[in-house]
Amino acid sequence: MIDNRLAPYGALGLRVALGLMFIAHAYLKLVIFTPAGFAGFLGQVGLPGFLAWPIMLAELIGGIAILIGFHGRLVSAALLPVLLGALAIHAPNGWVFNAPNGGWEYPAFLALTAFAHVLIGDGALAVTGTRSAISAKPALA
């Protein structure tokens, strides 16, 4: 059973956590790994290095959009390929993310979180209102 009074705030919590995670990962790639370092990593795993900037910008701009609820569920859907790509890269490393080169459980969790956000909606305090299955009310006949 869904508590319709509190569900929008649960969706808000999910949205804030997901948005902050994307922003933090963009910051990590920009400042700690550096764009050149991230491009080099992509090359090592068989992806073209030119994807570094689009991925970092998608994470940063997408994270901000999700955080403030600006068409967040659409942004989460658009960022699912980034998360699934990270999952594919980390899958051979094993389960635990602190394994050498990181495991696959964290990207899998984030992909499922983004998918849940797509299904649930933006929740409370979103800049743009998007309806969700929780808030949708049947039309009066």
Q: How would you characterize the overall build of this protein?
A:
The chain is an all-alpha fold. It has one domain. It is 63% helix and 0% strand. Helix 1 crosses helix 2, helix 1 crosses helix 5 and helix 3 packs across helix 4. The longest helix has 27 residues. It starts with 6 loop residues before the first helix and ends in a 21-residue tail after the last helix. It is a multi-pass membrane protein.
Quaternary form: single chain
Helix content: 55-70%
Rounded Rg:
17 Å
Overall mean pLDDT stands at: 91
Summarize the structure.
The protein is mainly alpha-helical and about 140 residues long.
Essential attributes:
141 residues, mainly alpha, 5 helices, globular, transmembrane, DoxX
Strand and helix layout:
Layout: H1 7-33, H2 35-44, H3 52-68, H4 72-90, H5 105-120
Helix pairs in contact: 1-2, 1-3, 1-5, 3-4, 4-5
